[in-house]
Structure formats: C-alpha cells, structure tokens
C-alpha cells in the first residue's frame, strides 16, 4: 500500500529493501482512500 504512484524509473532499485522474491506484480487499484479522523475523549470534570 502506498500514498503515491510514481513513474517507472523514479526510484533507485538499490535503495529499495523488500523481499522481491515474493512480489509478483504491482498494480494501481481503483479504491477510494478514506480520510482518517482523529477522535479523542473529552476530559472528565474535576
């Protein structure tokens, strides 16, 4: 999962560290990235 798809050749393969033996293909999905919202509890009255 990535935040941004970059053009082929933009990344130096020598700086990428992942077990490539397990990577068969990379695809760009058409899913909508939902915005995460921070939720916090309100302070309790003293």
Helices and strands in order, then pairings?
Blueprint: no helix or strand
Outline the structure in words.
The chain is mostly loops. The protein has a domain at 1-27. The model has no long low-confidence stretch (mean pLDDT 76). Keywords: Transferase. This is Coenzyme A transferase. One of its GO terms (molecular function) is CoA-transferase activity.
Quickly describe the structure.
InterPro entries: CoA_trans_fam_I, NagB/RpiA_transferase-like. This protein is low in regular secondary structure and 46 residues long.
Descriptive keywords:
46 residues; little secondary structure; 0% helix; 0% strand; elongated; NagB/RpiA_transferase-like; transferase; CoA-transferase activity; Coenzyme A transferase; CoA_trans_fam_I
Poorly predicted residue ranges: none
Q: How is the biggest beta sheet arranged?
A: none
Structural category is little secondary structure
What is the C-alpha radius of gyration, as a whole number of Å? 19 Å
* Oligomer description: single chain
Which percent bin holds the helix content? Answer: under 10%
Shape: elongated
Number of helices: 0
Strand content: under 5%
Task: Please tally the β strands and state the result.
Answer: 0
Amino-to-carboxy terminus distance: 44 Å
What is the mean pLDDT?
76
GO molecular function: CoA-transferase activity
InterPro entries: CoA_trans_fam_I (IPR004165), NagB/RpiA_transferase-like (IPR037171)
Protein name: Coenzyme A transferase
Keywords: Transferase
